[in-house]
Amino acid sequence: MTEKRFKQMTGFSVVYALVFSATGLYFAYYSVFLKSKGVPVSEIGILISVYFGASAACQPFLGVVYDRSRRKHMIISACAFISAAAAAMIPSQNSLLGRAGFTLLFSVFAGAVPPLMDAGTLVWCAQHGVRFQAIRTWGSVGYLAGCGLGGVILGRLGLIWSYYGFTLCMSLAGVLVLFLSRAGWMPLGRSEFVPASTAPVTWGAIKEAVSGETFLALLVLAFLYRIPLTGPMAFLSTFVVWRGLGAEHVGIAYALTALSEIAVLFAGQRGKVKASPNTLLTLSVLAAAVRWYLTPRIVSVPLMLAVQLLHGVTFMLFLVVSVQVVNKCVRPELSGVGQTVFGSVFYGFGPVTGTAIAGPMLERFGYARYFSMCGAMCAVIGLAYLGYAVSRSKSERKPGGPP
Question: Is residue 316 a contact partner of residue 261, using CB atoms and an 8 Å limit?
């Protein structure tokens, strides 16, 4: 590996680590902070829905802006700075309207940073023969730091720092994107990177990029899967507290999820995973069924926390396989559109549907029954997708079957 390539790989990795440190700190503890202020679970569900809904609605637009711009680093930095500012304002709001308003602003731009980073990183990896997992691993390391160290830090400074910590980390990420891009360590805005398309990025071009059967099937799967996956994930912190445990156990639970992500990414980086994308996606969904079925049933606290190690398979494996499938489905100059359209479903429409029903279902059925119902839904979705994949594989082998 040349010195130049090593510097660029380091630049991408450092920014991923900071972005996901902010994400881990926020998502692991924000619901616990809101609950400590007396916010009802149903209102927390509304705020989560606002987050995912705004992300779903706006990500494709930001993807178009990203693809049309020759200063792609500026787009990512702007999203980081705006989300950091909005996060700092949420804790001071005392009404649902105020919290929802700043959560909406926060979500539009915070939700866009990971898929835009993925779009740029995947193109760079393809150009230089680098495995995407080698860089994305550092995002999970950052997530581990945010979750694990976050529990210790918040225990001393207060849960409000789940927001202020996000602001600090994401602001630093925005500054580094600008600095590293100009220094050549993160060439998102340089001529050596794939230039902006000379043809207008029209709705027709977007439709062409995302209308293939493989892409559409992935979108449907991502939407259906995220409904039963997101609710338990969003309320994992409050579930741990409901079990009578403290913030340090919340940190342990999320630290274990991050460790499992690192393990999955490391295996992919080393080329240990040889199965087809459809097989890996099916495995991910079925593993979620096991995870959510077991989580509320295990009496032993260490074993209950250990089950969260399945997160690497249920979330990160699905995400990494999906973004690489998307990258193969779209042209490089439309990578931003492809990743943000997928992101609008995976981080948006699917989660907003899941969280919209999570709060009321939790209040009606309780944690144990709700988690079990989500596990059953994952099992049905996984088996249905397995049937589709097998059917399509057989049709492709027949003469005149789809390519």
Answer: yes
